[in-house]
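Schema walkthrough. Field components (list of strings):
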Amino acid sequence: MRADLEIIQQWVQPGHHVLDLGCGDGTLLHFLQQQRNATGFGLEINPDHITTCMGKGVAVIEQNLDTQGLENFDDGMFDIVLMTQALQAVRRPDKVIDEMLRVGREGIVTFPNFAHWRLRWGLTLSGRMPESDALPYKWYNTPNIRLCTFKDFEALCRQKGIRIKGRRVVDDQHQNSWLARIWPNLLGQIAIYRITRENT
Amino acid sequence: MPDSLPADSVGLARPETIHFGTPIELACGQSLESYDLVVETYGTLNADASNAVLICHALSGHHHAAGYHSLEDKKPGWWDSCIGPGKPIDTNRFFVVSLNNLGGCHGSSGPNSVNPNTGKLYGPDFPVVTVADWVKSQAQLADHLGIEQWAAVVGGSLGGMQALQWSLDYPDRIRHSVIIASTPRLTAQNIAFNEVARQAITSDPDFHEGRYYEADTLPRRGLMLARMVGHITYLSDASMGEKFGRELREEAYKFGYDAEFQVESYLRYQGERFSESFDANTYLLMTRALDYFDPAYQFGGDLAKALAPAQCEYLVLSFSTDWRFSPARSEEMVNAMISARKKVSYAEIDAPWGHDAFLIPTPRYTEAFTAYMDRVAREVEA
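Field assembly_structure (string):
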């Protein structure tokens, strides 16, 4: 099982109503349906992914976050809004986060850390835009247009008054390493954040 | 018709007329003491009758959805692209039921059938029926066939409205509702086009207030015009451009008003053919059923409230160039389903053919439809 699924699963309660932004082929939602009896939807724009979701029995809506936002969803209608590896690909991550926490009580966000030492090292040494297993694109064709670091993300949350309920830092295999726990912004490749506007 | 039946065809289909002796109360307040429905079925009903799929037809459709009636047929049924062995609605797995709706003109009780009370054709005296009335009659049909619950009710356009209505009126008798190129209600523009069509028919001198059978004539010109107007709304600007452009039938302008452009002669041909094969009173009735459809009406326009009783899962598909029932109309429906916490999947298929795209097997449409129906089949162990 993918390690990130295992981590996210622990934060989803049985019967939770879940929205997955950029749900891909529906692996996560399908897993949560099976393991947690979760209900809800995935949003996706890739036609092949949408078809795969339909074949799996994952409710998927063709909807583009950049152009359509989440306007069609009511306030607080989801227990959890998920966004795995998609924050860096939307045009306005700050607005998407606001919308996530408008339609959901809690958000779970995962994204690659642009301050990982190998990326820093690559840029310093070669003077070229870094590439890695988590970011395997060229600068001109990458869908990842809003790269940030763990520190950047946390600063944005502070600025917006969003509370970080939990954070797990893992490598690109979604394994939890002790090094990444010691110095996450340098040694962690991917972070899984649990965020909310609620105080309890 | 090809020399032999294609391997992915349901083969030779045999329509059957089923008589219903129990009265049916209609939305208009009238009732029919008895009525007939013409039905075709494809595939085999399984032991626990869990693999049945109902096909609902659109404005000019009928029971002959797939396969051929004889080896002389030039064309198969109207939705042969989607129904058959290995097709989205796979007849190796599903038992498919397709009917001609009440008020139709292909053998089911309607304006051109005999009123048992008078021994004469109903004509304009056939009551105006609604989508809900159709669904009610289809439920009678399900009872007759021993189908307690449909694995899926599927339809495009006006057929999609029936699939939606089923989920509201018989929530425990439908597992999946597949709504393609449809809308939860007509817009003013949609109704306006229908009105032009109806005016074309009723103002034809051969219409005789709908009693043209007695006058031994047909309102051909009116019906032809109605079809021409309708046909334009089924295509897109791009697909008409692609098919006809400004192409002339002959090389130069003739400075007259005959059909000089290819598109003109195409529309005239389609209209003429239709006027010979379709009943004008049925056309009026079908367009009215479209106009009246609005399940949210009795809930103050709140479709999410109207959806409250539904228990099924929905698949909604729209087509990018459909301007008759545009993707925005499907999204309106999907958003209400989301709000009502129903399970729904939605895709907007990129296709150039306008409203007609639901009849044309583009790869993405076929793949998504197949994937969804495959899952339905697995769910009912078909």
